[in-house]
# Entry
Amino acid sequence: MKKMDIKIHVNGDWYELAVNSGDRLVDVLRDQLDLTGTKEGCGEGECGACTVNLDGKAVLSCLILAVQVDGCTILTIEGLQRGSELHPLQKAFTSESAIQCGYCTPGMIMSANALIYNEPEPDEDTIRKNLSNNLCRCTGYDRPVKAVLKAAKDMKGDTNV
Amino acid sequence: MKKGKLRVNERRKTMSVYFQIEEYHRPRDLAQAVDILSGFGNRARVIAGGTDILPRRAGVKKIDNINHLVDISRLGLDYLKREGDHIFMGAGTTINTIGASPLFLSGPYGALSDAAGAHSTSTIRNRATVGGNLCNASPCADLALPLLVLDAILVAAGPEGKRHIPIENFFKGVNYTALNNEEVLVEIRIPLCSEKTGSSFLKLRRHQTAIDMAVVNVATSLNCRENRCEAAGIALGSVAPVPFRAKKAESMLAGAKLSKGIIEKAAVAAAGEARPIDDVRSTSAYRKKMIAVLVRRSLESSMRRCGQ
# Structure
């Protein structure tokens, strides 16, 4: 398998990496950059656990080759935090008890982050539709929906992607 | 600039076989893309969003021997414009771009907007392209159906230049199209419809979760003048090896005065033209019944959209 050099902007820093042509973005994030907050669930685009933000949009990092994002800006769950303070979405997911096992949570939060970036005041219906991107098998959706509503209110349009 | 850590451990070695590919090519223009495709024959495949090809190639489900991927996602093929008597859509336009476009909100093209909204999840639609949806040639391809009733023309680029393929002649079988190995689908042209046209798309899924593929999906279009139908289009998905037009049902509507009765009759006729199979999603018998229901509802919706 041929190696390729790519340059990607992840969570505020540029990285120069040599990747295999077949490496997916999720492989590179987790194995080369040690950003294991991004989870791999099904690996075929159904569960949403691997959701990251790519140039301001929520995408599935298991369905993108790393070589395809050469030159692009990526935000993962690790990049949300502002200094030592948690991001409003992270705070809301905690305070609303929207986490149980937590495996789907990074994907849900990154999906919600792109939503709020593109639509600063989403209504509940929009949030529910958006969270259908992410499969959760233990917490359910009511609390995550509440958490996103709360975070959107707290953020007042102050977003980063 | 940070240098990425390169941890070559055992786990990484096993991870990297997840998706095996000899080489990824990023051509600088269309001519080079066609060149590379010509050089590798059936060992090369075009990639744009990658949302079909990656899961198809993943792990144990590896189903083909493609070793070269030719990325066309940076060749400027993502555009939507209305010019002269056509709407021009680049093959690399993402499905979310189509869903959000004001071009398809009005009656004649409503089916396209419906289908874009019903296709998978928004995270996939941010990457998945209309060209990929067509070239993957799944029997249940959502965008194929509105484009069938809108009589879209597909433009393919190959070594001998460009050629036009009416969408009706494009689908040849499951995952098999009229494109040659060295050809790239570059554009979809939609002829402008009369304002008196309405179209709609409906999709039935098992659990109404966003990700599931269709049990059946249909698109219809009606061109009416004072309740008289001048032309009708009915396209059926997931009920044959390829998405197709139900011509007999269409001809029952053309020239007829539209009523509940005739719409019901045409819907039943459309179900008669379907040749569904039993599979994990549904039985053949249920699919046939649902085709009649969906076609009827879609025709009613298209009728309401006429002249909107």
In short: The radius of gyration of chain B is 21 Å. Residues 148 and 167 of chain B are 6 Å apart (CA to CA). Confidence is low (pLDDT under 50) at residues 6-17 of chain B. The interface with chain A takes residues 1-7, 11-12, 15-16, 18-24, 26, 47, 49-51, 54-55, 58-59, 61, 69, 71, 73, 120-124, 126-127, 209-211 of chain B (CB under 8 Å).
